[in-house]
Specification:
It is built from eight helices and five strands, in the order αβαβααβαβααβα. It is of the alpha/beta class and about 200 residues long. Strands 2-3-1-4-5 form a five-stranded parallel β-sheet, sandwiched between helices. It starts with 17 loop residues before the first helix and ends with a helix. The model has no long low-confidence stretch (mean pLDDT about 95). The chain binds adenosine-5'-diphosphate (ADP). The site of adenosine-5'-diphosphate has 18 residues, from helix 2 and helix 8.
Length: about 200
């Protein structure tokens, strides 16, 4: 009986790469990074986009405050350095998902160019799709989905973005969605038109 060469290893002993996983999933991993004020519509759009993609057969993961701040980042607060660390970890987690071929939809205010640039750098510009979910502060405040603006105006929340902490207009966006002018359906349609050619 011939013995197997020591130099030949079956392929399944090799670590599988992104390319194989993308073939398995029949999609390209990308991060859709939704930036904008609280109440601008990031979570609403992420949920709708995820459902539409699911129906079309795409595997996705939404990352937001609910599954990040309560879990891996539950030791972080809202100081400048903690906000930075919050986004750094989110970007690293997103990169792991993308390397698995998963489409990751992120809903974080990410208020400064520096923070968004860091995320883009970690994830890689080719895999980073930046969506500016934009409604005027006045509209977001009127919506006050979580009652946070009322509390911020009362001084109960320090350094609240848009009130006592700046939101810098994003300069490297792939698309701007004006949620005060568009319906949810129209907004979702515009995002899908942008991303479908890049994930399919
Ligand atoms: P964020 O996640 O950015 O804090 P939310 O998605 O929680 O914001 O809240 C946005 C609110 O605005 C929701 O009540 C939503 O129904 C409303 N809204 C109105 N028009 C739009 C739109 N075109 N896109 C997204 N949300 C919209």
């Amino acid at each position: 009986m011939p013995t197997k060469s020591k130099d030949i290893f079956p392929v399944f002993h090799e670590i599988l790469g992104r390319a194989e996983k993308e073939i398995l999933l029949n999609q390209h991993g990308k991060v859709i990074w939704l930036t904008g004020l609280s109440g601008a519509g990031k979570t609403t759009l992420a949920k709708h986009v995820e459902k539409e993609l699911f129906v079309k057969g795409f595997l996705t993961q939404v990352l937001d405050g609910d599954n990040i701040r309560t879990g891996i980042n539950n030791n972080l607060g809202f100081t400048d350095s903690d906000r930075f660390e919050n986004i750094r970890r989110i970007a690293e987690i997103s990169k792991l998902f993308v390397n698995c071929g998963v489409i990751t939809i992120n809903c974080f205010i990410s208020p400064t160019e520096e923070i968004r640039d860091m995320a883009r750098r970690i994830i890689g510009a080719d895999d980073f799709i930046e969506v500016y979910v934009n409604a005027p502060l006045r509209v977001c405040e009127e919506r006050d989905v979580k009652g946070l603006y009322t509390r911020a105006r009362r001084g109960e929340i320090k350094e609240f973005t848009g009130i006592t902490s700046p939101f810098e207009t994003p300069e490297n966006i792939d698309i701007e969605i004006r949620t005060d002018l568009l319906s949810v359906e129209e907004s979702v349609k515009q995002i899908l038109e942008l991303i479908l050619p890049r994930i399919g």
